[in-house]
Design goal:
The chain is mainly alpha-helical. 74% of the residues lie in helices and 1% in strands. A two-stranded antiparallel ribbon has the order 1-2. It is rod-shaped and about 230 Å long. One of its GO terms (molecular function) is metal ion binding.
Length: 780
């Protein structure tokens, strides 16, 4: 440690000088600092110039010609500068100032942004900067305290001198001096007779500063370079002014301090040898213990056995932090103490002009440093490994949890999808239902495509978990593989189902067209069969053979169309058979429904069989009716032959009777006899009428209502015969009314017997009984 300080002191000094030389112009912009520097630097310059019997009043004006500047440098350096130019022209002044600046540069001082023109022009900031550079180089740089120099050396000297004093803590060259106690402490440390430090008060800043400045000027020949009020009223006093003033204290007390140091060295020489022996033994012991601890600790730090959880790794990190916080600090102190002891021992031995201490083999400072470096490397690597491993595990656990969530979500979504995709519900679906299934499948395909990203994310997470060496990577891989396999399967099944749905849609469209054609052809054919059945079952009302012959002819024509109708039936059934063939060939349900009609092949066949069954029945009925009409025709002809004979006969008789009623040439008895003869003829002819009545009865039973062979009907014959029979009594009544007086005629008419037949038809008058009645009366 001591040797390192010796090596780096020159670097620190040079660095400090470079930093101080590269002064910042902006630092001089504070008016308070400028005022303090102007007064301090002027007083410092005068403290040296008065040795040459001169001084300055205004620092930027009095140094413009360069003469007093060159004189100042000669006084403080003890060297002669080049002869100055005595002219008063500007270039003379610039030449003198340049000579001064060249001398400063020759002393190893780097001047930054300071030019002779600016000094000659009275630039106060440049002038103050130049004076500070001179002060730093000739009054502060050479200060050396315990291997430190310049500003650090001066600060360390102040800290050492004021350390025993209460309320004094010198940490800098600005605020640490505001209360004046630090100045008083420096004076009291070297001249306790000048100040009673115990009576000073910390809060009396003005009093403390004034006392210190007055005593320094009066007793120590240190000019009063500062104003107490300026220091108190400035939040941060100017550091350069304070350093300049403090450096005067250092130079004032330097001689006394050197004498004191020499005395102390003599006093310490006696105990050095004994302390050296103790330090050697202590070094050996501490080195052994420290090396042993390093040998035990390093393998622990080099062990890189990862844990499976973040908590376990964090426990390792806590153990490591306990090591850093609890176990290592004492060892660091031991190492530092060991190095301090070693350097101290070597320094003491060197000072005592004794041989350097050589530790046991393997216990050199370099050995300990190498072992410690190895420990530090292991420690650094272990810490980096712990943090990296914790971050890895945190990432791994986060990814594992994310994988589980996404996998669970996807598995929940995918559950049962393969079964749905393998359903063959389209085989039993109608075209409308199939199209609905196709649209539903398209929606599923969109949903499937939307889940592609999740599957890719799951695969990417699984890949990253493998790359991060996840301890349960095998489980993750198995689950991921299962998801990917199922995803591939779903993709394959989706494509197959789409193909099956599209193929089935085309088949059902074909079937639909066949059903439509079936409906278009079966409907009129069904209507034809229904009409045919109605016609074949229709009751026919015929009254002649011609009419029956006409029906038979029409029926024969109908039968002639049955072959063509059967061909149409076969064609219609072939359409339905084609549907069944397609359904069977492609696994479509045979229970297909024709939405265009309710007619089925079974209905067609059933009606066709009924038509075929009704045709012979119609044949038989027509031929039976033909036979019946032939019988009826015979009845008509038979009835007509009799009626055509009876009708004229009755007409002739009625005409004869009518003529007899007009011709009244005979007596009543003659007329009655004539009527009786007519009656006898009529009665004898009644058998013919009865035969005609029998024929009429047959016609009635045969439901014959017309007869084109005769104009006479049975009703007309009945009426004519009744009229013929009834005409005789009427004639007799007329005769009685004409021949007899009214009373007798009425009486005779009232005595006439009934002439109504047993069947209610008027019969012939019983003239014999009537004559007996008439002649039996006494008054006739």
């Amino acid at each position: 440690y001591f040797n390192l300080i010796l090596v780096f002191i020159p670097y620190f000094v040079d660095e400090y000088m470079i930093q101080e030389d590269e002064w910042d112009r902006d630092m001089l912009l504070d008016p308070a600092w400028e005022k303090q520097q102007r007064k301090t630097f002027t007083a410092w310059c005068n403290s040296h110039l008065r040795k040459a019997g001169t001084q300055i009043e205004n620092i930027e004006e009095d140094l413009r010609n360069g003469l007093k500047l060159m004189l100042l440098l000669e006084v403080i350096s003890g060297e002669r500068l080049p002869r100055p130019d005595r002219g008063k022209m500007r270039f003379h002044k610039i030449a003198n100032v340049n000579k001064a600046l060249d001398y400063i540069t020759s002393k190893g001082v780097k001047l930054v942004s300071i030019g002779a023109e600016e000094i000659v022009d009275g630039n106060v900031k440049m002038t103050l900067g130049m004076i500070w550079t001179i002060i730093l180089r000739f009054a502060i740089q050479d200060i050396s305290v315990e291997e430190t120099s310049a500003k650090e050396g001066l600060l360390l000297w102040c800290q050492r001198k004021t350390a025993p004093y209460r309320n004094v803590n010198v940490q800098n060259f600005h605020c640490s001096w505001k209360d004046g106690l630090a100045f008083c402490a420096l004076i009291h440390r070297h001249r306790p007779d000048l100040i009673d430090y115990a009576k000073l008060k910390k809060d009396d800043h003005l009093g403390n500063l004034s006392l210190a400045l007055e005593i320094a000027e009066k007793h120590l020949d240190i000019p009063k370079m500062l104003d107490p009020e300026d220091i108190i009223n400035t939040p941060k006093p100017d550091e350069r002014a304070i350093m300049t003033y403090v450096s005067c204290f250092y130079h004032a007390f330097a001689g006394a301090e050197q004498a004191e140091t020499a005395a102390n060295r003599i006093c310490k020489v006696l105990g050095v040898n004994q302390e050296n022996e103790k330090l050697m033994e202590e070094y050996e012991r501490l080195a052994s213990e420290l090396l042993e601890w390093i040998r035990r600790t390093t393998p622990w730090l080099e062990k890189r056995t990862p844990e499976n959880t973040v908590d376990a790794m964090r426990r390792k990190l806590e153990d490591f932090r306990d090591y850093r916080r609890i176990h290592k600090p004492p060892k660091v102190q031991e190492k530092c103490q060991l190095e301090i002891n070693f350097n101290t021992l070597q320094t003491k031995l060197h000072i005592s002009h004794r041989p350097a201490f050589m530790p046991s083999e393997g216990k050199m400072v370099s050995d300990i440093a190498a072992a410690w470096q190895g420990l530090d490397q292991a420690e650094k690597g272990y810490e980096e490994w712990l943090l990296t491993e914790i971050r890895r595990l945190e990432r791994v656990e986060h990814l594992a949890e994310k994988f589980k969530q996404k996998a669970a979500t996807h598995e929940s979504w995918a559950q049962g999808k393969d079964q749905l995709l393998t359903l063959k519900d389209y085989e039993s679906a109608s075209l409308t239902e199939l199209r609905a299934l196709l649209r539903k499948h398209e929606a599923f395909e969109s949903d499937l495509a939307a889940h592609q990203d999740r599957v890719e994310q799951i695969a990417a997470i699984a890949q990253e978990l493998n790359e991060l060496d996840y301890h349960a990577a095998a489980v993750i891989n198995e689950r991921c593989q299962s998801i990917c396999d199922l995803w591939d399967q779903l993709g394959t099944l989706t494509q197959k189902r789409r193909e099956a749905l599209e193929r089935t849609e085309k088949l059902l469209e074909t079937i639909d067209q066949l059903f439509l054609e079936f409906a278009k052809r079966s409907a009129p054919f069904n209507n034809w069969m229904e009409g045919a059945m109605e016609d074949l079952q229709d009751m026919f009302m015929v009254h002649s053979v011609d009419e029956v012959q006409s029906l038979i002819s029409a029926h024969d024509q109908f039968k002639a169309t049955l072959a063509e109708a059967d061909s149409e039936r076969q064609a219609i059934l072939s359409i339905y058979n084609e549907v069944q063939k397609i359904a069977q060939s492609y696994g479509i349900s045979s229970k297909l429904t024709n939405i265009y009609c309710d007619i089925t092949p079974a209905i067609i066949n059933q009606k066709w069989e009924k038509v075929k069954k009704l045709v012979p029945q119609r044949d038989g009925a027509l031929h039976e009716e033909l036979s019946r009409q032939h019988v009826n025709e015979r009845f008509r002809r038979q009835f007509a032959a009799q009626a055509n004979a009876i009708g004229p006969w009755i007409q002739t008789r009625m005409e004869e009777i009518a003529r007899s009623s007009v011709d009244l040439s005979g007596t009543l008895e003659d007329q009655m006899n004539q009527l009786k003869q007519y009656e006898h003829n009529i009665i004898n002819y009644k058998s013919n009428i009865d035969r005609l009545e029998g024929d009429h009865q047959l016609i009635q039973e045969s439901l014959i209502f017309d007869n084109k062979h005769t104009n006479y009907t049975m009703e007309q014959t009945h009426v004519a015969s009744c009229a013929l029979l009834c005409l005789q009594p009427y004639i007799l009544v007329e005769e009685l009314q004409r021949e007899l007086p009214p009373e007798q005629a009425e009486y005779c008419i009232s005595r006439m017997p009934p002439y109504q037949g047993p069947d209610g038809v008027p019969g012939a008058l019983d003239y014999t009984a009537f004559s007996t009645v008439l002649y039996g009366e006494s008054d006739l």
